[in-house]
Amino acid sequence: MIADDRALVDRFLDMMAAEAGASKHTLAAYRNDLDRAAEAAGPLGRASTADLSRLGNSWADLAPATVARRAAALRRFFGFLVDEGLRKDDPSSALPRPRFERPLPRILDEEEVRRMFEAAEDRAASGEPTAVRNLALLELLYGSGLRASELVGLPRGAVRSGQPFLMVFGKGAKERLVPISTRAQAAVQKWLEHVPAAAPWLFPSGKSHLSRVRLFQVVRAMAADAGISPERVSPHVLRHAFATHLLSGGADLRVLQSLLGHADIATTQIYTHVDSARLVELVNARHPLATRGR
Questions:
Q1: What is the DSSP letter of 95?
Q2: Which among 56, 228, 248, 254 is least surrounded, fewest beta carbons within 10 Å?
């Protein structure tokens, strides 16, 4: 990288550290991405749209995530130069924009979920506190579609008898109402008999609450009890199963978006791909042409 570019990058990184609070690791990653871009496009301080358009070919063999990260670093860098009056134009519109194929979520079918519940219920019937707790965890994961962080962070009084909803603090500290089934209410009430009255959390552990790592381990153990490969199951897989099975039952996509706490319905639409077989069946059964004879 030429001296002029190095000075600009240093100023940019100083801004990132001071105003954005970027860590040393993040700053090093930005510097590396900008260095690699300069090798392919030439000096960044005077790079044109034509220079940046060449990066598409240079980055052709890179993973889409890497291309997206490098392009994002350059956009932020050029935005900084324009904001600081160091450049009059922003050539970043010429940067490549990789298309991502969102992977389909792993799910369990309804029979596998039933087996997990049967195994958990059999253990909880003994009254052993850990087994009672695990059944309550399973009911809330699959019955309400909670994220792992939302579940373990529930306060002791989150589930109240007779109230069909609970308030959840999701990503970005956003609140949403989540329905809770009578089954889940009953399982939680049994678990509360084992939770100290002074405990601030519904699922306390040590000086805090159950960790996400421990929840992951608990869910995998319950899968093994049901004869399901533990590698296939996690709290997030149960959340996916909640969404997919609701969609199979006829739930509206907008309703599902609200229940899952998705900011963008595009995130929710992944479940239409998972449940494509049901959608084809729906078209064949309900579309006016389906019953029209030749």
A1: S
A2: 254
**Would you give the DSSP letter of residue 199?**
-
Whether 43 contacts 6, CB under 8 Å: no
- Strand 175-179 and strand 165-169: pairing? antiparallel
Residue 293 within any structural domain of the chain: no
For residue 39, what are the domain limits?
3-94
Q: Which residues are catalytic?
A: 147, 171, 236, 239, 262, 271
Q: Which of 94, 119, 148 is the C-terminal boundary of a domain?
A: 94
Measure the CA angle with vertex 280, ends 275 and 286; round to 5°: 120
141 & 90 share domain:
no
Phi-psi region of 96 (alpha: psi -120 to 50; beta: other; left: phi over 0): beta
- Residue 290 Ramachandran class (φ > 0 left, ψ -120 to 50 alpha, else beta): alpha
Nearby residues of 190 by Cβ (< 8 Å), 6 or more positions away: 124, 132, 135, 136
Question: For residue range 85-123, what is the model confidence (pLDDT) as tens digits?
Answer: 999 999 999 998 876 555 556 678 889 999 999 999 999
Six token digits for residue 200: 């601030």
Q: Note whether 116 and 226 are within 8 A (CB).
A: yes
Helix ranges restricted to H, the chain: 3-19, 24-41, 49-53, 55-58, 64-83, 110-124, 129-144, 148-152, 182-192, 212-225, 235-248, 253-260, 265-268, 270-274, 276-286
Q: What is the pTM of this model?
A: 0.58
